[in-house]
Amino acid sequence: MAYRRARPARRVEPQRLVPTLRVGTHDWDALRPLWKGRDAERRHVRSHAERGNEEKETMRVKNLSRLLVNKFLVRPLPAPFRHDAGDCWSAALPALARYASDEAHPRRSTLTLYEDGIPLQQPHCSVDEIRCLGIGRYCHWQDRLLFSTTDNSDPNTNGRRYEYSISPWLYRRRVERPEIDPTRPVNFRKRDCSREKIRSDVQYTLEVGGNLLKTVRALGVSLVGKTVLEIGPGINMGCPLMFAAHGAKPMVADRFLAPWDRGYHRRFYKLLRKELTRIDPNADVRPITALLQARGYPENIIQRVHASLETIPVRDNSRDLVISNAVVEHLYDLDASFAQLYRITKPGGYNLHQVDFRDHRNFDKPLEYLLLSDEKFRLTFESSHSGCGNRWRAEETTERFTAAGFEIVAFQANGFCRPEYLRDFLPRLRASSSRYRDWPEDPLRTIGGLYTLRKPDG
After folding, report:
1. Other CB atoms closer than 10 Å to residue 70's CB: what's the count?
2. Euclidean distance between CA atoms 418 and 395, whole angstroms
3. Is the C or the N end of the chain the one with fewer CB within 10 Å?
4. Collapsing DSSP states into helix, strand and coil, what is residue 229?
5. How far is the C-alpha of 251 from the C-alpha of 302, rounded, in Å?
6. DSSP state letter for 348
7. Could you tell me how many helices (H) and strands (E) the chain has, helices first?
8. What is the pLDDT of residue 189?
9. Backbone conformation region of residue 58, classed left if phi is above 0, alpha if psi is from -120 to 50, else beta
10. Spatial distance between the Cα atoms of 229 and 43, rounded to a whole number of angstroms
């Protein structure tokens, strides 16, 4: 008969007693380590140091891998570069013709173009886009690479280094990533969480929101208890929260509502709260604090509607104020959208809309999309998720607001074309087949403005 050896009794260590130190009215218990005993403390410190070493080793391996990849897979782009037309330059790549895009395979190429080691993010562009818009667009077509520099300068003389890789693996990692894909809606792309970017976004929010608040005060409207809807808030809810800090009940609506990003939004709202308290002592920043505590968007602080303006599910005559900033130019159907704005605005309520009438593909060339035929522009507009702008001019937009039933309280033009650009653009417009080719010069000059609208009583 076999006997099982009895296990030795488990030794129980006596509990260490850590004395409580009290100085004056301060209780130093709160400052004691959460771990028990000095052995656990040493283990914690050791594991923290080990994690630091692991992170350093991981970064070293990544840097070495990047160095090897660039050494063996990235090649200098053969110079000199020949000027094609406009902002377009070409480099001959006859050995890569079988990997290039062509009419049968318009997006076959996996070529990645680098400017000073940075991969450019706009491949497979049309020749017309590269020539007219530039700013880093390129296309590997048949036996050559057609490209533009990031500032439309001459690549032969700007002192920058141009390289390329043809590896599909590198193309997927450096260009075809969903979070940086330029065809992906902006609200769903990867956030830039750098200190400079967040500070810039906060300053922009304070500027835009401050201007809208000044306009509301000039109208003699009190925001306390008022329902405010912002159409297309963008990547953050800064403006409606500024209105909430003055007593309003905010709501936002967007086809592509930006989700909460822990790295970006926590820092953004903390800095917004700090700056808003500094410049406006009367602002109640508790709504911003509630967002930070919830790490999201509680329904009792701000209502969020996932819908386009054309189909927005908001009750009739329910909003005291509707605002937007650089949104009207991205609407697909102005008549349907403005009819919805009129429907949801209370009688006697106001609308404030800042409209950007520029071609968003290149702000330095704000009227280029007016050269396109209606069909070609429709394809461009839809493929960019309306990102390029709908190209309706200020006069056309004013007519549609009036047709929807609004009173035009004011239109303040606040953006204008550079005279030298307009002089260069007009001959090209007159020679095009665009429906804008006979438009006079003066209406084309305006590229931005703020609409103040009112829904009549009764």
Report:
1. 15
2. 19
3. N
4. strand
5. 6
6. E
7. 12, 17
8. 77
9. alpha
10. 54
Q: What is the dihedral of CA 259, 264, 265, 270, to 10 degrees?
A: 180
pLDDT tens sequence across 109-146: 999 999 998 899 889 998 988 998 888 999 999 999 99
pLDDT per position as a tens digit, 64-76: 666 677 677 899 9
**Residue-wise pLDDT tens digits, 369-408:** 999 989 889 888 887 778 889 999 999 999 999 999 999 9
- Cα 154 to Cα 79: distance, rounded to the nearest angstrom: 12
- 278/200 Cα distance (integer angstroms): 17
**First-residue to last-residue Cα distance in the chain:** 101
Domains of the chain in sequence order? 75-176 (no CATH), 195-454 (3.40.50.150)
Compute CA distances 288 → 132, 238, 241, whole Å.
Answer: 43, 9, 7
Whether the link from the prior residue into 182 is cis, omega within 30° of 0, is: no
CA atoms within 13 A on the CB side of 387: 14
| Residue 451 identity | Y
Q: Match 């404030």 to its residue by tokens.
A: 352
Strands 138-141, 82-85: pairing is unpaired
CA distance 449 to 332: 19
- Say if CB 150 and CB 135 are below 8 A apart: yes
Nearest Cα to Cα of residue 292 among 283, 282, 302: 302
DSSP 186-209: GGGSPP---HHHHHHHHHHHHHHH
Average pLDDT over residues 6-28: 48
Burial class (CB in 10 A: 0-12, 13-18, 19+), 194: exposed
Distances (CA, A) of 87 to 133, 135, 153, 340, 430: 7, 8, 8, 41, 21
Instruction: State the Cα–Cα distance between residues 298 and 314, nearest whole angstrom.
Output: 19
What is the secondary structure of 122-134 as a DSSP string? Answer: B-S--HHHHHHT-
The pair of three-digit structure tokens given for residue 335, joined into one six-digit string:
């008549």
In whole angstroms, what is the distance from residue 370 CA to residue 432 CA? 9
Phi, psi of 75 (to 5 degrees): -125, 150
Distance CA 258, CA 306 (A): 10
